[in-house]
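Whiteboard transcription, Tuesday session. T.W. wrote the structure tokens on the left side:
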């Protein structure tokens, strides 16, 4: 399955996967407003045999088929403070 990945200029590590190059017609306008102007990162071919770094490839493919896009949110960072001895 062909896929194009774009990063958000507004939010670090937020990515938008679309099933057609430069076609954001299926992405809700409110999401695009918050995402900012998408910056192309890469084109890949998705397969259930290919792993993605942070996303479940089957879930991405299902979202692309069902809604035409997949949004990858930034990872949650847990801050642990050192309380001392």
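and on the right, the sequence the group agreed on:
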């Amino acid at each position: 399955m062909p896929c194009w990945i774009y990063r958000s200029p507004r939010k670090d590590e937020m990515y938008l996967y679309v099933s057609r190059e430069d076609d954001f017609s299926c992405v809700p306008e409110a999401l695009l407003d918050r995402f900012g102007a998408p910056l192309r990162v890469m084109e890949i071919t998705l397969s259930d045999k290919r792993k993605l770094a942070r996303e479940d490839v089957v879930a991405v493919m299902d979202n692309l088929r069902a809604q035409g896009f997949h949004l990858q949110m930034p990872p949650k960072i847990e801050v642990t403070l050192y309380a001392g001895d």
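Someone added at the bottom: The mean pLDDT is 92.
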